[in-house]
Write a structure and sequence with these properties.
Elements: E1 2-7, H1 13-25, E2 28-31, H2 44-54, E3 71-81, E4 84-85, H3 87-95, E5 102-109, H4 114-124, E6 129-137, H5 143-155
Parallel strand pairs: 1-2, 1-3, 3-5, 5-6
Antiparallel strand pairs: 3-4
Helix pairs in contact: 1-5
The chain binds flavin mononucleotide.
């Protein structure tokens, strides 16, 4: 059986960490992409992104259908948006049920919110075994440190 690392990354931080985890675990990766585009610059990104979380939006994913039956371990990664996971992760939860998997969680943030995010993700997937969680503060600011930390975490799962 094998491992899938599935993540959304708006500005590359979660991707940096997700790729390091996948490399360490020899895992497949899926970077979730949405048909809806969020503004990338200025204060607008916080406004639209935050609003999207608060309204519980589930933007349409444009990825190919993922065959989760191939994987016994699924690592889910998200940036923290408005104190929670980003809306594309909500879309993933809505579209993909999981049972009896080993699940690891990671999040990237600018100051906090990972704890609440992780507990919501655990609630979303009750019939699974959670094997680890880790949060990163703006990993792109210290890429090598973050990559090493991610690789160490992944190697111990
Ligand atoms: C719409 C939006 C909302 C955010 N909300 C939070 C937040 O509530 N708490 C926090 O610590 N960081 C917040 N951030 C910062 C991101 O979580 C942080 O920059 C993260 O590293 C981005 O990951 P990414 O580059 O993979 O998108 C927010 C960023 C955006 C764009």
């Amino acid at each position: 059986m094998s491992t899938l690392v599935v993540f959304f990354s708006f500005e590359g931080n979660t991707k940096l960490v997700g790729d390091a985890i996948a490399k360490t675990m020899g895992a497949d990766t899926v970077e979730l992409k949405t048909s809806k585009q969020y503004p990338t610059a200025g204060i607008g990104k916080f406004f639209w992104g935050g609003k999207s979380v608060l309204f519980g939006e589930t933007p349409q994913l444009v990825n190919e259908r993922i065959d989760l039956s191939k994987y016994d371990t699924v690592i889910i990664g998200t940036p923290i948006w408005a104190g929670s996971f980003a809306p594309p992760i909500k879309s993933f939860i809505t579209e993909y049920q999981m049972k009896g998997k080993r699940i690891g969680l990671f999040a990237c943030h600018g100051g906090g919110g990972a704890k609440k995010c992780f507990s919501k993700l655990r609630e979303a997937y009750p019939e699974n075994q959670f094997i680890g969680e880790i949060a990163f503060l703006e990993p792109k600011k210290n890429p090598q440190v973050s990559v090493n930390e991610a690789a160490k975490w992944a190697s111990e799962l």
